[in-house]
Every structure is written in structure tokens, then in C-alpha cells.
């Protein structure tokens, strides 16, 4: 369902459910660390919200609104950091932009005739988001390649960690995508009940 005139409540529901599923898994694994910007587990909150926004925008064909929401999230996220520095501008942009690209890739992949069923779509979400999350570290390392070359083992460890945590975020948000579509189809997109007064074909008395 990709209706450009789709109600806003469907868009909000998608973003909320996808984000919540990612954060819930993070909280189950890392407890309150998912809400602390200083902790690595904060990726569950940061990336899940970015994924939720982009997914909802694509499904509702509100890409411009979604990009605007991601920009607002970028500004808020940067302001959440305790000590601001110019590196945060690149860091947050890389993660938010990377997750947005991962969702686009995932949504294109699931339209392939070879992809059938929710399980495969969830697995693809885990793969796409995991790989992109790992590539974020590579991109950031290129920006500081002199320092990265001197600490290559640390960079590789960070890539591996991001692949792991990104795959978990992808699987949980992928599950959130499936749950969102199910709940919207079941509860938000039901046709209005036809009452005797509004039965199709009836004409108003003159």
C-alpha cells in the first residue's frame, strides 16, 4: 500500500512501531544504556528512529516530509551530545544518512520477484542495515585516514561491532515493519461500516 493520500496516522504508526521494536530489543540487551548518547548501545535508539522515519516516509510516499523529519532529528541528536565538537556533525550525518540509504535499499530489494514472505524481508533488513552500519565506520575512517592507519585494529573492531549491532537493529526494525503493516491493515485501514442510512445506491428523498 503506497497511497500518496494516505492518512497521517498511518505514517506516524509506521514510524512509531518500527522505532519501538528496535529500541525494545536494545533495552532487552543493554537496558538503559540505549538512552545514553555516550554509550555504543545508543545506536539502537539513534538508528531505529532514523529507520522508522525513513520507512514511514517511503511507504506513505512522503519522502520530502521524511527528509525534513530526518533533518530535525539530526539537529536534535547533535544537541543531545554533552560536549559538542565538529566531528559530531560528520558522525551523526553518517549514521542518519546511512540508515536512510539502508532502508531505501531494503525497500527496493523486497520488491524483487525473488523475495517472498515476511521472514525473508526481515532477514534482508538485518543484512542491509548491518552492512551499512559497518560501512559507516569505514566512511568515517576515510575522513581521518592518517589516524585510522595508525589504529587499524581498533577500526576493524569497530566495523565488526557495528556489523553485529546493525544486524540486530535491522532484524528488530524489520520485524517492526512487518508488524506495522499488519496492524495498519487490520485496525487503521478497515473500510467504514455501511449503515442503512448510507447504503450505496440509496438516494436522498426530495
Describe this structure as you would to a colleague:
There is one protein chain. The protein is an all-alpha fold. 73% of the residues lie in helices and 0% in strands. The protein has helices at 8-30, 43-59, 63-80, 86-109, 118-143, 145-150, 152-188. The chain is globular and about 55 Å long.
Distance between the termini: 40 Å
**What general outline do the C-alpha atoms trace?**
globular
The percentage helix is over 70%
The low-confidence parts are 197-206
Strand residue content: under 5%
> Tally of extended strands?
0
Describe the SSE topology.
Blueprint (H helix, E strand, L loop, with lengths): L7 H23 L12 H17 L3 H18 L5 H24 L8 H26 L1 H6 L1 H37 L18
Helix pairs in contact: 1-2, 1-7, 2-3, 2-4, 2-7, 3-4, 4-5, 5-7
Quick structural overview:
With 206 residues, the chain is an all-alpha fold.
Features:
206 residues; disordered C terminus; 7 helices; mainly alpha; single chain; 73% helix
